[in-house]
Structures are given as C-alpha cells and as structure tokens.
C-alpha cells in the first residue's frame, strides 16, 4: 500500500494539506514548484517513517487514522 493510499483511506489528506500549507507559510510562501516539492518531500518522508514504525497490518482504519492525525497535529503545533 502506498503512502497516498493510506492517506486517502484514513481521510487525512485535508489535514496533511493544512500542515503543508502552514509549512509553506513559515518558509515565505509558495515561490516555485521546485521549492514546494523540496518542502513537501521531507514532510511525506517523515510521515512515512512514522507509519512504518507505529502502524501494523492488523490495525483498523480508525487506529491508523489516529496515528496519522496525531503525528500531523504534533507537527502543526511545532510550527506554531
């Protein structure tokens, strides 16, 4: 299962986008597509690591959602 599939399955795409947009704002806003991807890719990589560490195959969709939601909330708090 891909990271995109997991985010879609858990319904956390909008929440993840909130983190990305806040991160962009902290870096001075959108400047170029390259700068956007340079910021987004590390965020996605960190989320993927979190999922690999904390999620297990036998977890329910809701349990996975809570792990992802908590991670995103923690990252948002760190930016504010």
Q: Sheet bearing the most strands, described?
A: none
Low-confidence runs: none
Helix content: over 70%
Number of strands: 0
Which quaternary structure do these chains form? single chain
> Cα-atom Rg, whole angstroms?
13 Å
Shape by Cα distribution? elongated
User: What series of H and E elements makes up the topology?
Assistant: HHHH
Mean pLDDT, as a whole number? 93
Terminal CA distance reads: 32 Å
Could you tell me the strand content as a percent range? under 5%
Describe the structure.
- With 80 residues, this protein is mainly α.
- It contains four helices and no strands.
- Helix 1 (3-10) packs across helix 4 (61-79).
Short summary:
With 80 residues, the protein is mainly α. It has four helices and no strands.
Topology of helices and strands:
Blueprint: H1 3-10, H2 13-26, H3 33-54, H4 61-79
Features:
80 residues; 4 helices; mainly alpha
């Amino acid at each position: 299962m891909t990271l995109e599939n997991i985010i879609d399955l858990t319904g956390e795409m909008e929440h993840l986008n909130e983190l990305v947009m806040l991160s962009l704002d902290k870096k001075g806003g959108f400047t170029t597509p390259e700068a956007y991807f340079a910021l987004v890719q590390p965020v996605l990589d960190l989320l993927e690591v979190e999922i690999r560490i904390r999620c297990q195959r036998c977890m329910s969709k809701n349990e996975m959602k809570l792990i992802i939601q908590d991670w995103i909330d923690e990252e948002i708090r760190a930016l504010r």
